[in-house]
Amino acid sequence: MRTRKRILQTNLSNQGGAFSVAYEAQKKLQDEYIFDYFSPDDFVKNDIYKHLLSMGSRCIGKSDCKNRFLKQYEIYKSFYKYLMENNYDTVHIHSDTAWKISVYYLAAKKAGIKHIVVHSHSSGINGHYRKINYLLHLITKPIVKSAKYRCACSKIAAEWMFDTSKNVSIIRNGVDIDKFRFNSTARKNIRKKLEIEQKVVIGSVSDFSYQKNPEFLYQLVKEFQNDNKYIFLFVGNRENGCELKKLIDNDNNIDNVIFAGAVTNVPDYLSAMDVFVLPSRFEGLPMCALEAQVNGLYTIISDKVSDETKCSGRFSRLKLDTRIWKKEIQNIDFDCNRSNMDSFLDIENASANNMADEFKKIYEKNC
């Protein structure tokens, strides 16, 4: 039996969209490769963590430094030390900004790593201190652009990180098709549990951070507040979504929203929805929108998000105007048979199998 090659995936804990990309690829490639994970944060000890360990992964969480920028120096030191103490030929660095990639890239170069893959997952700056982060992104771009092995989840993510999509491997994000297929039993159970059997459910799955445009979601909720036919279902971390929740809680006229919080059965909640909305300010290639389309949901994204996100005929890309979104939602045909989506779905562009094949091509070339 061929010895499985270890690939070190960096800047990933076992949460978030970028991790989901690596995790889905790992599940498809586990007979040939073992993915280890080096994270700036602790790993959540959940079922996914246990599954990683069962596949032979090592999960390394480093740096207790609370200062955001000093933490990067701590990461550089601990990552370099880890590389010097372990034997890796290939390091795969994931991030949304050049300055975060640079921390790992420079440490890997110093440690003499032969093959360093840099992977862009976004097209903008999220979180706090966005102006400072953007400046650091611009300053460190030349470092990242010098990398030999460059990839991105979309053309717009490539241009954000490398200023071009030329000589960049575009590896479309992909999802587990069978896992996210529509489930009529789950739909019935979730809708009964939430007492929304007779409602048209407008939903979103997200951390509801700045990137996801919570202010627009709030305004969209207000568009429907006088129509009892519709209700909003928001799934995701309540702590990260506090801005959206604060806006809605402070509006005494709104009673058509359910915050489900973080859940472990996202596919079931997607099945309970009727339409999926993602009014993001920017994205790389949003996994949640792919998952929604695979589930058969009519999916609406903002025109700030790449049209590469489309993998279904039940899809719209609209400018950020709540009146336009409301009209689009009101005109949706909800009689579609979501149990048979193959005629609507571009499986090649949605499947994790194809994504994993692209990972394998890069690793075979490098290893």
Can you tell me the residue ranges where pLDDT is under 50 for at least 5 consecutive residues? Answer: none
Biggest sheet, open or closed, and with what strands and sense? Answer: 7 strands, parallel
Distance between the termini: 18 Å
> Helix count?
15
CATH topology of the largest domain: Rossmann fold
CATH architecture of the largest domain: 3-Layer(aba) Sandwich
Order of helices and strands: EHEHEHEHEHEHEHHEHEHEHEHEEHHH
Report the C-alpha radius of gyration, rounded.
21 Å
Number of domains as seen in the coordinates: 2
Structural class: alpha/beta
- What's the name of the CATH homologous superfamily of the largest domain? Glycogen Phosphorylase B
Strands in their spatial order, largest beta sheet: 3-2-1-4-5-6-7
Mean pLDDT figure? 92
Helix content: 40-55%
Q: Report the CATH C-level class of the largest domain.
A: Alpha Beta
How many strand units? 13
Strand composition percent = 15-25%
